[in-house]
Backbone:
């Protein structure tokens, strides 16, 4: 049967590819024409267990045959109860409780609402370059790229932004995050408190432990521990937005574990259910006490089929050692890209944690050598697609290529991706 023309999909969905996909298996997608593509986008960091993992697919099918929708205000169901219990123990510290919703933006909204009602304070501080969603409240928090918010002013108020430590673009010169960071993020936050808002009016500071859409920027090892100290000193809640970094993506179940930081609220989505819509927050139980019944909710949050998928996803992550595999394959990928960067000065920086890796492209002969080169990034990404490997762009200037393998990916697949990226870069710079 002939498929409808793709023009039926509104153009507001900007296109990464024009592929029509029939099926997926592990790290691979197969189009309706029978072409196979190595999917190193993972649906933007969603398919951590790979496409159509048999255990997840079986759990979905079994639950769908029993119950498709069991609304949380009306009933309890076994997958939901088991997932709530399991999530409460997924992060050290606490004691934790979970709230389940559908999307990352919904979960961020929930975190903001909870922070404001629990503290009685109005203000939220976010970091420049962060991405937190496309709803009105989350757009107000987002500054990763102008396209996400610029056409939609006015946005909700009492939101302020402060610089994230972007070591490659530090004013004093590029430096490795773990080599004595000179970024002035703490001074800028202190200036915000002196120029714009009293710290005792701030409900929460929200931060991606590793910036996602903003360019896969890994901060210095001292950043999150120091931010935790500052927030505690002022009675400000710390919200860790782990929508993209969670569920093993960075080589820890959650990225905050790299620095042994305990947030007050943790936002999760994407990798939680291997592709089914599910999200949520973890928060300390005493914070949840501030939420009176009926003050927050949603029709589809904690959908029974999605909860079954999430339970199977957690089983797969644990039983198949996917967190350790993310560390190993990420180190292999980043190491290969650094070898490539030694031969190509247009690669200004290679960075990442686990299977969350990026190359930043620059014009080495222009200015101080860090002038962004989005055209080259687009050419390399397009070249990889022509060679049947899918990677994505990122960064405020679109000059970053981000590589997001499923956590089930193999050493051979990483080697294949590295060879394709080298071929694409060679062709783009010829």
Residues:
């Amino acid at each position: 049967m002939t498929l409808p023309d793709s023009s039926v999909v509104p153009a507001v969905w900007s296109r990464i590819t024009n592929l029509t996909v029939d099926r997926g298996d592990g790290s691979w997608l197969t189009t309706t024409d029978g072409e196979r593509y190595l999917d190193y986008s993972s649906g933007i960091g969603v398919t951590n267990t790979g496409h159509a993992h048999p255990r997840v697919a079986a759990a979905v099918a079994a639950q769908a045959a029993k119950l498709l929708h069991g609304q949380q205000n009306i009933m309890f169901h076994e997958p939901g109860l088991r997932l709530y219990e399991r999530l409460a123990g997924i992060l050290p510290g606490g004691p934790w409780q979970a709230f389940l919703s559908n999307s990352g933006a919904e979960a961020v909204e929930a975190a903001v609402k909870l922070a404001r009602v629990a503290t009685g304070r109005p203000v939220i501080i976010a970091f420049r370059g962060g991405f937190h969603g496309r709803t009105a409240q989350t757009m107000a928090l987002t500054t990763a790229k102008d396209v996400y918010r610029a056409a939609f002013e006015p946005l909700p108020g009492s939101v302020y932004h402060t610089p994230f430590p972007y070591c490659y673009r530090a004013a004093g010169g590029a430096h490795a995050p773990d080599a004595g960071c000179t970024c002035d993020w703490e001074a800028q936050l202190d200036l915000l408190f002196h120029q714009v808002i009293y710290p005792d009016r701030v409900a929460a500071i929200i931060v991606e432990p590793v910036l996602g859409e903003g360019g896969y920027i890994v901060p210095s090892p001292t950043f999150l521990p120091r931010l935790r100290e500052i927030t505690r000193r002022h009675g400000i809640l710390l919200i860790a937005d782990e929508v993209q970094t969670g569920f093993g993506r960075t080589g820890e179940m959650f990225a905050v574990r790299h620095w042994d930081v305990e947030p007050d609220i943790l936002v999760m989505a994407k990798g939680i259910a291997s592709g089914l819509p599910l999200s949520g927050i973890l928060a300390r139980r005493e914070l949840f006490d501030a939420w009176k019944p009926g003050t927050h909710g949603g029709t589809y949050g904690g959908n029974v089929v999605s909860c079954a998928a999430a339970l199977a996803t957690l089983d797969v992550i644990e039983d198949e050692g996917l967190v350790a595999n993310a560390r190993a394959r990420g180190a292999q990928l980043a190491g290969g890209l650094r070898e490539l960067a030694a031969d190509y000065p247009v690669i200004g920086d290679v960075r990442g944690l686990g299977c969350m890796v990026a190359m930043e492209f620059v014009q080495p002969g222009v200015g101080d050598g860090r002038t962004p080169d989005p055209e080259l990034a687009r050419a390399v990404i397009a070249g990889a697609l022509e060679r049947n490997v899918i990677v994505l762009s990122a960064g405020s200037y679109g000059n970053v290529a981000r590589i997001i393998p499923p956590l089930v990916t193999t050493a051979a697949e990483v080697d294949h991706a590295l060879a394709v990226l080298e071929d694409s870069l060679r062709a783009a710079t010829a």
Remarks:
- The radius of gyration is 21 Å.
- The CA atoms of residues 283 and 393 lie 32 Å apart.
